[in-house]
Specification:
With 731 residues, the chain is an alpha+beta fold. The protein has five domains: 131 residues, HPT domain (Four Helix Bundle (Hemerythrin (Met), subunit A)); 140 residues, no CATH class; 54 residues; 179 residues, Histidine kinase-like ATPase, C-terminal domain (Heat Shock Protein 90, 2-Layer Sandwich), CATH 3.30.565; 135 residues, CheA-289, Domain 4 (OB fold (Dihydrolipoamide Acetyltransferase, E2P)), CATH 2.40.50. The protein is built from 23 helices and 23 strands. The strands form six sheets. The protein has a five-stranded mixed beta sheet. Helix 16 runs parallel beside helix 17. The chain starts with a helix and ends in an 11-residue tail after the last helix.
Length: 731
């Protein structure tokens, strides 16, 4: 696939997303003219681009869709749920056609083609009627071309219309007007000709050497407008000539305008280059524009050239509007390109990797400078370190994208799923402007899809049941996003029936996940839904019920160094809270030492550092200004040998509103951390989230703060819980 085609595919997918979003909003607000215009422009852009790359199967399909949207925009057909559904299916099919083009295939396969033909047949039968039977070349015109030629009359024909009036002095120059008509006939066929004698004076006032006649001519030819005009070159200055194209060719001019190079051109240049206007006609229009302005003074605004050309009846209004739209679109795109540039994701990832290596090299240089004791070298490396930090922040900012685009894709999911299940569900999105690393966003779509579909299927009740429970018939699913202490928090909230804890417990016992005599907390019961193969659905649907999904959600989120929690109240709804790091590349860390090993704590999780002292004694908690703070001794957790130093320190961290302490031997200060993933063999290590390389070349492990905080909390719950018969949850 060449670069032009690749750019078309990428931009067309963006336009499809805009179309889909607009169609979903159209159902809520059918009278939004701006939204209708945006939907139409998106389809028109795809069709125009497909013509440029000569992908005719996309062009032909999009043309039919555009015809329907044009009728919708003009109020000829009403907005309905059936129409919106059909147009959304057309968007899906266009996505499939783009996949065909991206794969380098010349044509879609039989299945895809049959699907497209079925959609076109439905569009034609239900919304286009006879008007939908045209081909891709018969482009829509908003209004019938009813332009009055000089001398009167309406031009609505399939032939060229030539309005010709010879000047009074044409005979004195020895010119025979009829000879031009004979020459014109050599280029085509004169279908009809009407002689205009309205300028003929009374007999006593007539000058026999003057010409008073004019002609209205219907002319069929394959010649261009410029060739027709050249017939009258010798009398061009001594006649009034208007040449109007046939109605059947207006669409061709529109197509030519769409396919013009994206150069900055004036309106007249676009019309001339498309063949809709000749240079002589343009010059005459410009002269007419400048004449009144010069007479009125510089303060008077000139009449728009397009209005003048239409008034002179040398070009159709639709063509002028298309040229003006093309001019505005090119100008807007040029302005946007001046502010933005497309960069391939692989190049961006390579840049981030190089910045990471620069951070490591800078740390090594700073370490050597500190060991040398050279003040000049230390100062230089300090400046270098500051610049590296700025480069790091700027590079990471390039990868930050808003999560709103991911959220907006679920409008379609909620709409289709709710209709399939016979439910009424509204999707509320907040915090769409929240930014996070693109690599996180790319891997977040699938987990969120499972959460939203489960909220629709299992959470939200049927309208009848909601009415019985005193709830509004329309259920609500919320997608919220916000930043919290260097992490992003995403919530999927529904106001449905909540998680049936007794049902979950019974299902877990039935599947052998827990023992029937086990005593579990509400938190432990609700977490059973994340076990593989677990489902409380009475029957399997197209949406869920197979027991595959929630375990995948947890696994995928944990692979992103994140966590997921669920809280639920029966009869009121459930909240799934996902916490993720903002980036998976480079973070600010706090370096600590335990024995001969080094550990990095993400700096955004660090609250403060205190000395452990003897206050804790043999306990695993201490009094922090009147607050009980549980902690974990990393030396014991990771089974690090050797004697512990007499003075140890506690790094107080927080996550998801909970605090915990990490007991370490040394506090080594802040450290720019380049995250290196652990190998497959080490992915199950408890409390370790990755690794990094120190300036000395040694490897330091990055602590998984969420896992450690959860570990400390669980330990304290077990310690403080009353004696009970425990039954372990099976792995």
């Amino acid at each position: 696939m060449d670069e032009l085609t690749s750019t078309f595919v990428t931009e067309s997918r963006d336009q499809l997303l805009a179309m889909e979003d607009g169609l979903l909003r159209l159902e809520q607000n059918p009278g939004d003219a701006d939204n209708l215009g945006a939907i139409f422009r998106a389809a028109h852009t795809i069709k125009g681009g497909s013509g440029v790359v000569e992908c005719h199967f996309i062009e032909a399909f999009t043309h039919k869709v555009e015809n329907v949207l044009d009728k919708l925009r003009n109020g000829e057909i009403p907005v309905s749920g059936a129409l919106a559904t059909l147009l959304l299916e057309c968007c899906d099919h266009l996505g499939a056609l783009l996949d065909v083009l991206a794969a380098g295939l010349p044509q879609p396969d039989a299945t895809v083609q049959a699907r497209g033909d079925a959609l076109l047949a439905t569009l034609g039968a239900q919304f286009l009627g006879d008007s939908g039977s045209g081909t891709a070349g018969d482009l829509p015109v908003e209004h019938a071309a009813e332009l009055a030629a000089s001398g009167g009359g309406i031009v609505v024909t399939d032939a060229w219309h030539i309005s010709l009036r010879f000047g009074p002095g044409v005979l004195r120059s020895g010119t025979d007007p009829l000879s031009f008509l004979h020459y014109l006939a050599s280029l085509g066929e004169i279908i009809a000709i009407t002689t205009l004698a309205d300028a003929m004076p009374a007999a006593d006032e007539m000058d026999p050497e003057c010409c008073y006649l004019g002609f209205e001519i219907r002319f069929q030819t394959r010649a261009s407008k410029a060739q027709i005009e050249s017939v009258f070159d010798f009398v061009r200055d001594d006649c009034t000539l208007h040449i109007l194209p046939p109605n059947s060719k207006i669409g061709e001019y529109l197509k030519l305008i769409d396919q013009l190079p994206e150069d900055s051109m004036r309106l007249g240049e676009i019309l001339v280059r498309s063949g809709a206007l000749t240079q002589a006609e343009l010059d005459a229009g410009l002269a007419a524009q400048s004449a009144p302005a010069a007479a009125a003074g510089a303060a008077a605004p000139p009449t728009p050239l397009g209005d003048i050309l239409v008034g002179q009846k040398v070009v159709h209004k639709e063509i002028v509007e298309a040229a003006a739209s093309r001019q505005a679109a090119v100008s807007e795109k040029k302005a946007g390109e001046a502010r933005m540039i497309r960069v391939h994701a692989d190049k961006l990832d390579q840049l981030i990797d190089l910045v990471g290596e620069l951070v490591i090299a800078g740390a090594g240089a700073s370490l050597l400078a500190q060991r040398s004791g050279d003040s000049g070298l230390i100062e230089s490396t300090s400046v270098l370190r500051r610049l590296v930090e700025d480069i790091r922040d700027s590079a990471l900012q390039l990868r930050m994208v808003q999560i709103g685009e991911t959220f907006n894709r679920f409008n379609r999911v909620v709409r289709d799923a709710s209709r399939e299940l016979g439910k009424r569900i509204d999707l509320v999105i907040t915090g769409g402007e929240t930014e996070l690393d693109k690599s996180v966003v790319e891997k977040l779509g699938d987990p969120l899809m499972h959460l939203v579909r489960n909220a629709i299927d299992h959470g939200i009740e049927s309208p009848a049941l909601r009415a019985e429970r005193g709830k509004p018939e329309n259920g609500t699913v919320q997608l919220n996003a916000c930043h919290d202490s260097g992490s992003i928090v995403i919530e999927v909230i529904d106001d449905g029936g909540g998680l049936p804890k007794e049902k979950i417990r019974a299902k877990a016992i039935d599947k052998g996940l827990i023992d029937a005599t086990a005593t579990l907390s509400e938190h432990e019961i609700t977490n059973l839904i994340f076990e593989a193969g677990f489902s409380t659905a009475e029957q399997v649907t197209n949406i869920s019920g197979r027991g595959v999904g929630m375990d995948v959600v947890r696994r995928n989120i944990e692979s992103l160094r994140g966590s997921i929690e669920v809280s639920s109240s029966e009869g009121q709804g459930s909240t799934f809270t996902v916490r993720l790091p903002l980036t998976l590349a480079i973070i600010d860390g706090f370096l600590t030492g335990v024995g001969k090993a080094s550990y990095v704590v993400p700096l955004e999780s660090v609250v403060e550092c205190i000395e452990l002292g003897d206050a804790a004694g043999g306990r695993n908690y201490l009094n922090l200004r009147g607050e009980v703070l549980p902690f974990v001794r990393l030396r014991e957790l990771f089974e690090i040998g050797g004697e512990a130093p007499a003075r140890q320190n506690v790094v107080i961290v927080h996550y998801a509103g909970k605090k915990a302490g990490l007991v370490v031997d040394e506090l080594l200060g802040e450290f720019q951390t380049v995250i290196k993933p652990l190998g497959v063999l080490f992915r199950h290590l408890r409390g370790i989230g990755g690794s990094t390389i120190l300036g000395s070349g040694e490897v330091a492990l990055i602590l998984d703060v969420p896992a450690l905080v959860s570990l400390v909390g669980s330990s304290e719950e077990r310690r403080l819980a009353p004696p009970r018969r425990d039954a372990a949850v099976s792995p």
